[in-house]
Write a structure and sequence with these properties.
It is built from 31 helices and four strands. The chain has a two-stranded antiparallel ribbon with strand order 1-2. A two-stranded antiparallel ribbon has the order 3-4. The termini are far apart.
Length: 553
């Protein structure tokens, strides 16, 4: 087996370094309106049919290309410039020209002499794997792909199989048009046949090529599946102990399986997912960090969908192991495991409860205060879907001490994280009990929430006004509206709400005006019996009726 260096090839955009693994994610701008987002939360009296937000519909920022840390395609770059790849080549080590032109390669591959064909194929591979700007289009225009694909079937000459597979892999690592040329040349069934090769380096190259093709998008992913790639791929891992496989080989197979799980519109066939999942569960318990990272990415793709697709994943029982990985210190593993957990809690209450029962909330103090803004943001987004759940689930958030962390993000997080924390608070106020809402106010949510009313994002301003309205509704039920008004005025919130009455967005203008008219416009004489007891530190809310509890807002 031959040493290779993996390099990340960012399709259609740029070539980046080995460790900077980037990819593409889809967006849906139209579905990110405030009303659409509100309607996609769990049953809060806004929309009972679509109970939670779908990531692709409601948070464009989380779906941008630069936020996905898994590679889409990869080129195989040689570390052995002129090393022999077979006994046949050893006999002619001094005969291979260091730099063949494309024209010379065309003549060589069409020569009837196997030795010359091999030299030409190796020369093509070197052009495609060693130059910073490989001449992929020149190779395609020269009509070399059909010949290279035919060489994949040359079981009589293992070196030419390997060199042609390597060359085609690197062509398929390019743009969609370049990948299309490989597919149109009939490479998919040829590569699938090579998965069963007794020569490990050839089967691994076939795995790599299929991963590049499947990574191009849902169309070619489904074509690879349709041609029957899954079963022979899984058979490569059908060994009693995965540790018996070479780490590079196992990583390549795992990465290709993750690309078969990737992309939406449409999502992968459910039958294919059910076929792959048992192997993913097994890989989730491996100890190789790259294997774990790519397995978690695969699961994040599979859970980014409808509740029934989430259920297919959850019912395998893998959530506890996913939560365990969520708590690891390795960012390449933590990121996709958090994405997967976040996707699962967009599902049903029952699916969310499985995440909670697996101990996920105990990991969130470190996630919500993580030094990486993207982790904070995704953690806050995950919390927003948990607080969109049942009141007992909101209580679990409280019991794990997570409310102060959300408020901390409101105070000093980056704006994208703050927006997710605002949603978490808004959902909490929409579905929480009066006692839970009082606790939220006690924890200090009002001032940082109101401070964000100065944000330029009118969508998030509307969500904040909705949360404030929900808090007022709770205050009304315990006859503490005036005290809340004083609290808002004390921290400068009233000025901010009043300023919104001249906002360019009509919805913001109406929502702010409604709050002012309902709670701040009446010039009533103060009844001394209801004037709040003012202290330097707080106002004391007295719950009316038979409830003796005292709340300090």
């Amino acid at each position: 087996m031959y040493n290779t260096v993996k390099i990340v090839f960012k399709s259609l955009i740029l070539l980046v370094s080995l460790k900077n693994l980037m990819s593409k994610m889809s967006t849906n701008e139209n579905a990110n309106t405030p009303s659409a987002r509100l309607n996609r939360f769990k049953n809060k009296g806004k929309d009972a049919t679509e109970m939670r937000r779908r990531r692709i519909e409601v948070n464009v920022e989380l779906r941008k290309a630069k936020k996905d840390d898994q590679m889409l395609k990869r080129r195989n770059v040689s570390t052995f410039p002129d090393d022999a790849t077979s006994p046949l080549q050893e006999n002619r080590s001094n005969q291979v020209s260091a730099h063949w032109s494309v024209e010379e390669i065309v003549k060589g591959v069409n020569n009837n002499n196997t030795e010359i064909q091999l030299q030409a194929t190796q020369a093509a591979r070197k052009l495609l794997s060693r130059e910073q700007q490989p001449p992929i289009d020149s190779i395609i225009r020269a009509g070399l792909i059909p010949k290279l694909v035919s060489f994949l079937g040359r079981a009589d000459c293992i070196p030419i199989q390997f060199e042609s597979a390597w060359a085609l892999t690197n062509i398929a690592s390019g743009t969609s048009e370049q990948t299309k040329a490989v597919v149109d040349g009939g490479a998919i069934p040829a590569f699938i046949s090579l998965l069963a090769s007794p020569h490990t380096h050839i089967s691994e190259q076939a795995v790599w090529a299929l991963g590049n093709i499947a990574g191009d998008g849902s169309t070619y992913r489904d074509l690879v599946i349709k041609f029957g790639a899954i079963e022979p791929l899984l058979s490569l891992l059908a060994v009693p102990d995965l540790s018996s496989l070479a780490s590079g080989y196992l990583r390549n197979v795992t990465w290709t399986l993750s690309n078969l799980c990737r992309n939406k519109n449409p999502a992968p066939p459910i039958e294919a997912i059910e076929q792959i999942l048992p192997t993913l569960v097994r890989l989730l318990h491996h100890d190789d960090h790259e294997v774990l990272a790519d397995t978690c990415w695969a699961l994040s793709y599979l859970t980014d969908g409808s509740n029934d697709r989430i259920e297919v994943v959850v019912k395998t029982g893998l959530v506890p192991q996913l939560v365990k990985l969520l708590g690891c210190s390795e960012l390449p593993i933590m990121t996709p495991s958090l994405r997967a957990i976040g996707n699962i809690v967009t599902g049903t209450d029952e699916q969310t409860q499985i995440v909670i029962d697996s101990g996920a909330l105990s990991v969130f103090p470190s996630l919500l205060s993580h030094h990486k803004n993207n982790i904070q943001k995704e953690a806050a987004w995950t919390m927003s879907n948990i607080t969109a759940g049942r009141q007992d689930q909101i209580q679990r958030v409280i019991d794990h001490g997570l409310v102060p962390y959300l408020i901390g993000i409101l105070r000093k997080g980056d704006f994208k994280s703050q927006k997710e924390a605002v949603w978490a608070v808004a959902n909490y106020t929409s579905g929480g009990t009066i006692e839970q809402i009082v606790y939220l106010v006690q924890a200090g949510v009002v001032e940082p929430l109101l401070n964000l009313l100065s944000a330029k994002d009118s969508k998030i301003v509307l969500v904040i006004l909705d949360a404030i309205s929900n808090i007022f509704l709770a205050a009304e039920k315990i006859n503490e509206t005036e005290k809340l008004c004083l609290m808002i005025e004390e921290c400068g919130g009233l000025d901010k709400i009043e300023a919104l009455q001249s906002h360019e967005n009509e919805q913001v203008y109406k929502a702010s005006s409604t709050l002012i008219e309902k709670y701040f416009s009446a010039e009533e004489e103060e009844d001394q019996n209801v004037v709040p007891e003012s202290t330097a530190a707080s106002y004391t809310f007295q719950v009316q009726g038979n409830t003796p509890d005292t709340f300090n807002f």
